[in-house]
Amino acid sequence: MATSSLRDKYCIVGVGETEYSRHSGRTTRAMAVEAVRKAILDAGLRAADIDGMMSYQNGDSTPANWVAPDLGIRLNFYMDVLGGGSSTEALIGLAMGAIEAGMCRAVAIFRSMNGYTEFRIGGTGARAAQPVRGLDLAQVPFGMRSAGQNFAMTFMRHMYEYGTTSEQVAHVKVAHSKHASQNPKALLKDRVTVQDVVSSRWIVKPLHLLDCCLETDNATCVIVTSAERARNLRQRPIYVMGVAGRVSKPRTDFHWAHGPISRVAGYYAKDIVFGQAGITPEDVDITGSYDAFTFTTMLQLEEYGFCKKGEGGDYVSSGIIELGGKRPNNTAGGHLCEGYTHGMNMVIENVRQLRGTADDYCPKAADGVHTYDYGPRMCRQVRDPEITMNLGWAMPPTGSALILRR
Amino acid sequence: MTTRPAPDSRGPGRAYWRSGADGVLRLPRCTACGRLFWYPRTHCPHCGSDAIDWVATGGRGRIYTFTVVRQSPEPFFAARVPYVVAMVELAEGPRVMANVVDCDVESVRIGMPVSVLFEDLGEDIYVPLFRPAVGGAG
Question: What's the ipTM?
C-alpha cells in the first residue's frame, strides 16, 4: 500500500523527562510542566516558540491547555487524545500534519502519569473501580480484564504455533536489564538472568512477574518542528523518515475472535512506515520496541521483519538485541526496567542515541564522549548509529511505528 | 460472598446471555452472507448487514488459545485463582470466550475438546462455561 511521505521534512528537536519513580508525590500537571520545560531548554527554544501542544491519556492526566499557561505559553493548537501505548508515534505524525497544515509551528507532545501511585494499569486502584464498558462487556464475566490477561492469549498461541519458549523470550528482560544497568535514570538497575525470569512467580500464563513491565510515576516530552527550523537550533536535528500511527487489526474490540491472533498490527503498519522511509529493516541500527511484556518486543520485532515470522524467539535470544549486538533494542532499559511512560521514553532514548549523547555513566556523555564499554554502570551509547526505529503498541490489535535518522 | 461479575445483557448481547435457559448455546448469524459470528453485534462483522438471526450450536469445540490467571483484581476471581480463560473455537466456526472448568488447570491444552455448560446468575442470565468433552469435539 503506497501512502504519501513527509520524509526528512520534520524533526524532533527537544526531549525531556522527569524522574522515573514509584513515589512522585506530585500532580500530573506539575510533572508535565517539568518535562515540557526540560524539552524546551534541551531544544534551545524559548517558551514562546512553542505554539502547539498535544498529550495522550486515559482520564489519568492533565490536559495540554492546563499545562501551557504554567509555562507562559499561548497555544495556536492543542489536542489531548485518549489512549496509552502506540500514541507517541501517532501524535508525532499528527503534530507534523498540524504544522504542515499551517496550524502552528512547533508542537510539544507530553505524557504525564502517576502510573504507580494513582492509576495502575495492572488492574488495581482507580482502574479497577472504573465502570465496565465497551471492550470489557463480554470479558468481565470470565475474569478477563487486566493488560496481562488480554495479551496472554496471543502469547500462548504463538508458543503453540511456533514452539517459542519462555526461556527464549526471557532474554528480552535480560537484555533490557543489562541496558538499564548503564542508565542512571532507570528504576531497576540490576542485571537479571534467564533463570531469574522463569523462576519468578506466575502472574498469568505464560507471563512470570519479570516478564511484565514496571508501573511508574513520570512525565515525558518530545518537541516536533520543521527541518528548516531545526537546523538553527541547539541540538543536532533528528529527522522523521517515516511514521505510522494506531494501525489496527480487524475487529480491534475483540481480535481473538478473528484471524491468526499470533499476528500483530505491525503486519499492517510495516509497509506504511518502511514505504515512507524508503529503507528496509536491515538499515535500522537500533530498535525501540514496546515492552509492556517480554513477549511484545519479540512479536513486534518479527512482525516488522527483523526476523522471519515465528523466529522471534530465536532472534531475541541470539544476542542481537543487546548492546554490543548487531541491533540493540531499548538501550535505556525500556518499560521493563527504566520506567513506564506508554512508549515515549523509548523515542526519547533513540533521539539521544542518534545525537550521540545517551545519558549513561560516561563522564562527558553530554558532549558525546563515550567509552563504548558495556559493563555495568558504564556506557550505553551505540557506536555511530544512523537510523533508529520505534515499534509502538497498545492492546494486541493496535500498533504504531516511527523511523528516525540523524 | 461475592458473585460472578455479570455481563451487560442489554442490546445485541441479550439473546446470547439468555441462550442457556434451555441448555443450548446460540450464536448470531448474518442472513445476508450466511456466516455465524461472535461476539454479538447489531451488524455482521463480515459484511456489515443488519439482518441477524440466532441459531443453535452443538455447544462443542476445541480450545484455540487460553491462559491460566493466578492474580486477579476482581474479588470474585481473586478468590478462585488459578482459573482458566479460553477462546473456544466452536465446531460451527466462531471463537467464543469462556472459562474452562471442572479440570486441573495444568491439564488444559490448545486443541483440547470441550463442551458447554451454563452458570445461572439469575436475572435471566446464563454464563456459558466449558469443560473437557467426553467423546471428543463432536
Answer: 0.94
